[in-house]
Amino acid sequence: MDFPLDVTDIVIETERLTLRAFAKADLQDLYNYARVPGVGEMAGWPHHESIETTRTILDIFLANRDVFALWHKADKKVIGSLGLHSAWINREEEYKHLKAKNIGYVLSKDYWGKGLMPEALQAVIHYGFTTLEMEAFSIEHFVENAQSRRVIEKCGFKFVKEGQYYSKQLDKHFDELRYVLMK
Q: Of 102, 110, 131, 166, whose CB has the highest number of CB atoms within 10 Å?
């Protein structure tokens, strides 16, 4: 079952990251990683070609209050995002009774392969299961996104089924693999 979630006052610390709500002051950091070709496309959106596009996305993050900024402690900047959204499993008969959220994430290309996303994901999972008393998380990745597959598997998610995602922004269908993590 879906439930309302507001990350505005939630702060989660890991060894190298602080997960917190986005702020207006994060505009330049968000633009710096969202404008790099290949970053957004791995998540179904085109890389940002102007800071105005980024401002629009940041305003959505601020309004919806369901996306964490990933603040890198050593570099003192936002290097990615991790959102908790309505879960696709809440539309599945087998899972619809579970208190669940779907995880979506993006990380600056400069930080790929350093173990930061599993670190962030594991912290959010722990927080969700212990503090929010959630029962499950769902997540998915595009078939060709091997990096996300490794992150998802490293965090203990189990493959459930194949699916398809249509990105209006890219006008493209993506085959995806869908996973669940139970408490």
A: 102
Is 90 exceeded by the pLDDT of residue 109? Answer: yes
Contacts of 27 (CB under 8 A, 6+ apart): 51, 54, 55, 58
Specify the number of domains making up the chain. 1
Q: Is 120 part of any domain?
A: yes
Look up the domain containing 57 and give its range: 12-182
Cα torsion 111, 113, 38, 153: sign: negative
pLDDT, tens digit, for every residue of 56-101?
A: 999 999 999 999 999 999 999 999 999 999 999 999 999 999 999 9
Domain containing residue 58: CATH number:
3.40.630.30
Helices and strands of the chain, counted as H and E runs: 4, 8
| Token pair in block for residue 108 | 């600056």
Whether residue 71 contacts residue 20, with contact meaning beta carbons closer than 8 Å, is answered with yes
DSSP 62-117: HHH--EEEEEETTTTEEEEEEEEE--GGGGSTTTTTS-EEEEEEEE-GGGTTSSHH
Residue 2 lies in a domain: no
Kind and range of the H or E element at 39?
A: none
